[in-house]
Amino acid sequence: LGISAGLQVLPFEQTYLEPAAEIFGRAYAAQRTLTPSLPPRYDDPSEVLPLIRGLTMKYPAVVALSRGKLVGYLSGMLLPSFRGSERGVYCPEWGHAACGESPGSVYDLMYSEISRAWVGEGCLNQALTVLTGDRPALDAWFWLGFGMIVVDAVRGLEAVEPASWTPDAGITVRLASPAEGSHLLSIKREHTRYYREGPIFLPKREPHDAAEVERELASPRLRLWVAEEDGQVIGIIKGALEAEEGCQVVRDPLTASITGAYVRPAWRRRGAGSLLLQAMLDWARDSGCARVSVDFESANLLGRSFWLKRFSPVCYSLFRHVDDRVLRPDR
Ligand SMILES: CC(C)(COP(=O)(O)OP(=O)(O)OC[C@H]1O[C@@H](n2cnc3c(N)ncnc32)[C@H](O)[C@@H]1OP(=O)(O)O)[C@@H](O)C(=O)NCCC(=O)NCCS
How many whole angstroms from 180 Cα to the centroid of ligand 1? Predict the structure, then answer.
């Protein structure tokens, strides 16, 4: 495909699988020295090798070689709609890696090649997830036009730092029962509407009815806690075991994930969120987990300030929208 500065970009072949998985394994091991609460399993290239195989067999995929040695690979899944009604492509954190003297140039050249295939397929909404410790990769993608949209973060189960304040005495936290759909419907709807507003602008689907909330609560892998004051629901937090949301590298049988948290505006900054988080951490410990993960939109100002003080970011997801007029013939 392309040749520049001693680098050669070629279509991915299955013989590159092992060295590709090894490059990712090294990047992940480096990330784990920064974030020791991450699961150790992804240090082992054999964990991601089948994932890379599945991705590269199905979708466009390239490698970069320097003097015949693999120094990078890149592939992403093509999606019929993604972050909007246009077609898109999503490249997970294990779907790319670059090493050697100039990883930034490796990314530049690989993206130059594969982006033509992506846009040729009409995939204008392009996103990829990058390990937060991989500065050369973050710089390369930033210069290629990508900006942050989502953060994945993780923490161990150590108690939340003692605060200089105490939560309001009237706030209590309890586990919701699966029969409470109608009681929780209004806060669940309010929570989804929060994301639709600026500056987040993420249209999440509201639950249709109480029965839908009850079906969700009936899942054995999921728990929801409710914060109340004077018998009124003022906040919720949702925890899940073996969640399929968020980036791959937090996924592990010993990871419990926060899949939603919301405190009503009038009750914020009074300790309800912290009490809900503590209830979720206690459950994670009692369930035998080793860590808790969360993911949030980087434009969610309230969420990001709350989570960043209590969790360590491990992956940033970056997004680029390609101008749709490039798909139309010149007039
Ligand atoms: C994120 C969210 C759940 C936090 O809930 P909350 O009830 O405001 O959380 P807390 O009151 O425990 O803590 C919020 C801040 O108030 C401070 N605070 C809480 N009680 C306090 C008190 N009595 N005196 C002084 N400060 C207090 C906390 O220290 C914290 O500040 P910090 O993050 O700088 O440490 C809430 O802002 C929210 O619902 N946001 C919208 C939805 C959202 O973003 N959800 C997360 C989705 S991923």
Answer: 25
Q: Is 305 near ligand 1, meaning CB less than 6 Å away? A: yes
Q: Is 195 in the pocket of ligand 1 (CB under 6 A)?
A: no
Q: 274 CB under 6 A from ligand 1?
A: yes
Backbone angles phi, psi at 62, to 5 degrees: -130, 160
Encoded amino acid at 137, one letter? A
pTM reported for the whole predicted model: 0.97
Instruction: Record the tokens describing residue 154, joined without a space.
Output: 């993780």
The pLDDT tens digits of the residues spanning 37-71 come to 999 999 999 999 999 999 999 999 999 999 999 99
Tens-place pLDDT, residues 105-130: 999 999 999 999 999 999 999 999 99
CB distance 127 to 90 below 8 Å: yes
What are the Cα distances from residue 278, in Å, to 151, 175, 263, 291?
21, 12, 14, 13
**What does the angle CA 268 – CA 308 – CA 162 come to, to the nearest 5 degrees?**
65
Residue pair 213/207 in contact (Cβ under 8 Å)? The answer is yes
Neighbours of 320 (CB within 10 A): 17
